[in-house]
Amino acid sequence: MKLNLENRTLAKITPKERKEQRLWNAIALREAVINAFVHNDYTKEVAPKFEIFDDRLEITSYGSLPEGLSKEEFFEGYSIIRNKELMRIFKDLDLVEQLGSGIPRILQAYTQDCFHFSENFLRVTLPSTESVTQTQQDTQQDTQQVKELLKVFKGTHSRGELQEMLGLSDRENFRQKYLQPAIEAGLIALTIPDKPTSRNQKYYLTEKGKKTQ
């Protein structure tokens, strides 16, 4: 299957060990593909669609949840067979072990948020390991930059003063990587909150920020 070829193994070598991880969880991927074929509504001659993006894999099947099956029941593993003959073939090929077991297996690796229901389609989105790792790295970097910002506070400061104390010249980089994350985290506050772009705007540590400093 082409998706198996696309599901490459990523390796991370550390001083102690070599860690390997597939781009998408292999078991969840297998179950999502099987579900897309077995539960697809073929009355409109619309086949399942598989799309690979830089940061995710999307599997879209035609036909939303069968009548009489709620989302809660769907996630709990209950199932209403839409294509009995196709299900029989998949079982004969040992591709399906037990009716309704696919969704719980997917949820062992991904959250319910990866499922999107619309009136006529069901889409499963599996985020790529690369994008998850990058997000974690970005978050760690942002956290370090916020810590650096908190350390220079000695009272109330303007944006320019904070940049000067940090030795930063790029205003936009300072705003995106240092200032805004700290504000959103509730670590620093504005002296003129109703006019965030005021030329007289200054910033100070909140109680939460003082505890984190």
TrEMBL record:
<dbReference type="InterPro" id="IPR049514">
    <property type="entry name" value="Fic-like_C"/>
</dbReference>
<feature type="domain" description="Filamentation induced by cAMP protein Fic-like C-terminal">
    <location>
        <begin position="144"/>
        <end position="206"/>
    </location>
</feature>
<dbReference type="GO" id="GO:0004386">
    <property type="term" value="F:helicase activity"/>
</dbReference>
<keyword id="KW-0378">Hydrolase</keyword>
<keyword id="KW-0547">Nucleotide-binding</keyword>
<dbReference type="Pfam" id="PF13749">
    <property type="entry name" value="HATPase_c_4"/>
</dbReference>
<protein>
    <submittedName>
        <fullName>Putative ATP-dependent DNA helicase recG C-terminal</fullName>
    </submittedName>
</protein>
<keyword id="KW-0347">Helicase</keyword>
<dbReference type="InterPro" id="IPR038475">
    <property type="entry name" value="RecG_C_sf"/>
</dbReference>
<dbReference type="Pfam" id="PF21247">
    <property type="entry name" value="Fic-like_C"/>
</dbReference>
<keyword id="KW-0067">ATP-binding</keyword>
